[in-house]
Amino acid sequence: MNGRVVRDPDLRVRPDVDRIACDGAPLRPAAKEVWMLHKPVGYVTTRADELGRATVYALLPDAAPWLAPVGRLDRDTSGMLLFTNDSELANAITDPATKLPKTYVARCAGVLTDAALRLLAGGVELADGPTRPAKVTVLERSAADTTITVVLTEGRNRQVRRMLEAVGSAVLTLHRPRIGPLALGSLPVGTARRLADHEVAALRAAFTPVPGRGRPRPPRRAA
Ligand code: URA
């Protein structure tokens, strides 16, 4: 780096300032990209599955750079899954402190009473603590099932399924059509597209500012 050999694997660099080369060949930072996948049911959100099940990576085009999923969707959940190589942005999307709304449509078993709906909206007690207040809207009711929209500003493991269990129901199908200002729109199931710059800007603009944060950790300089 900057003409010196560096052996510290934890060294932080400033990609826009420091000159970095490997075996004499200059390395350039990859452009930051964000991709949106319309995940079908049946794919696991992992790079490699020890049970050999299909993973979401099978659905990303070869042209995509190295990308990591932003949070996860259960195998049985469909909908919007974001991927990026920008770890600072990924952290902000998943950090409950930025309160980015994630919208789910859940078809739930049986009739959800008004009391159950109030509980879901006000916060239910889960094994890992109470949930934050959520926006809950009924889309359809029948004797067999109730379809609701749930907007969460946190993203715990299997949160929607566990919330429904806590009020005595069960999720039959779960879909995430939106994250913040981004909607799946007409993106076909099983396909992915790169977000335009204005979409990434809209995503960033939707974060609730966190006092004392907002800038990535400064790089540690080489001694
Ligand atoms: N909540 C769930 O229960 N599952 C998901 O995949 C996402 C949110």
Topology:
Layout: E1 21-22, E2 25-26, E3 34-39, E4 68-69, E5 77-84, H1 87-94, E6 102-109, H2 114-122, E7 125-126, E8 129-130, E9 135-141, E10 145-152, H3 159-166, E11 171-179, E12 182-183, E13 192-194, H4 197-205
The structure holds uracil (URA).
Uracil (URA) binds at residues 73-74, 77, 158-161, 174.
Can you characterise this structure?
The chain has 223 residues and is of the alpha+beta class. It folds into two domains: 34-97 and 181-205, Alpha-Beta Plaits (2-Layer Sandwich); 101-179, Alpha-L RNA-binding motif (Alpha-Beta Plaits, 2-Layer Sandwich). The chain has four helices and 13 strands. Strands 3, 4, 5, 6, 9, 10, 11, 12 and 13 form a nine-stranded mixed β-sheet that branches. Strands 1-2 form a two-stranded antiparallel ribbon. The model has no long low-confidence stretch (mean pLDDT 93). Bound molecules: uracil. Uracil is lined by residues 73-74, 77, 158-161, 174.
Question: Which properties best describe this structure?
Answer:
single chain, 223 residues, alpha+beta, Alpha-Beta Plaits, 2 domains, nine-stranded mixed sheet, two-stranded antiparallel sheet, 4 helices, 27% strand, elongated, binds uracil
The number of domains: 2
Principal-axis shape equals: elongated
Regarding quaternary structure, what we see is single chain
* Helix proportion: 10-25%
What ranges have pLDDT less than 50 throughout 5 or more consecutive residues?
none
CATH architecture of the largest domain: 2-Layer Sandwich
CATH topology name of the largest domain, in short, is Alpha-Beta Plaits
Q: Main sheet? A: 9 strands, mixed
Give the class from helix and strand content and strand pairing: alpha+beta
CATH class identity of the largest domain: Alpha Beta
